[in-house]
Design brief:
With 201 residues, the chain is mainly α. It has seven helices and no strands.
Length: 201
């Protein structure tokens, strides 16, 4: 957003509405309506966001997203309801930031726990693996074990489809079978693999 010279009641500059390529929707807010909403609501929204978020950068990023949504969707909200709508949007944006922060915190805690317990060591490199790598390795091992339940024909057709990335037509041509048969065999192999994985829990 570029800055305009008008100022809201909190002393910060009013951002100009985002530049949208293509013809302007006639229902969209005018720049004057956008500026007025910003002047009336920016300081209150900033205070509300600061109560929910610890980081000033997160507050400003949320505030920008709120006013971007105003520019893109504000015409769908009755003028008398826009202030309330902006605060709901701000609350939702802050909650989204909070969820992302919580997820990152859980991932960090999981990785720290692995490191402190000595678990998660890659036997090849003898280095600690992050939690997502451990989970991926566990899933690969389960898949490998379940793959032992497949017949050679089923394993081959899944290899063609998912490792060699062949289309069903290419599989049918390679195996010299009808297209419908190739589809049926791939589906049957997937169902058997899924059943084996479900049985292992």
């Amino acid at each position: 957003m570029t800055e305009s010279s008008q100022r809201p009641d909190d002393g910060s500059t009013v951002p100009s509405p985002p530049a949208i390529e293509g013809p302007r929707d006639p229902r969209q807010l005018s720049a004057a309506e956008f500026d007025e909403c910003y002047r009336q609501c920016a300081s209150g929204l900033r205070i509300a966001l600061r109560m929910r978020l610890k980081n000033d950068l997160d507050v400003e990023a949320c505030l920008n997203r709120v006013f971007e949504k105003l520019w893109l969707q504000g015409h769908e909200v009755a003028p008398v309801a826009r202030r309330s709508w902006l605060f709901v949007v701000a609350r939702n944006e802050a909650a989204l930031v909070g969820r992302h922060a919580a997820r990152r915190s859980i991932e960090r805690a999981g990785n720290e726990e692995l490191e402190s317990s000595g678990g998660g060591v890659d036997p090849k490199t003898e280095t600690l693996m992050p939690l997502d790598a451990l989970l991926r390795n566990e899933q690969i091992e389960k898949l490998r074990l379940a793959g032992r339940e497949l017949s050679d024909q089923q394993a081959e057709i899944l290899r063609f489809r998912f490792y060699d990335d062949l289309t069903f037509r290419e599989i049918a041509d390679r195996l010299q079978i009808p297209l419908g048969t190739a589809l049926t065999r791939v589906r049957a192999a997937i169902l058997k693999l899924r059943k084996s994985l479900d049985d292992e829990g």
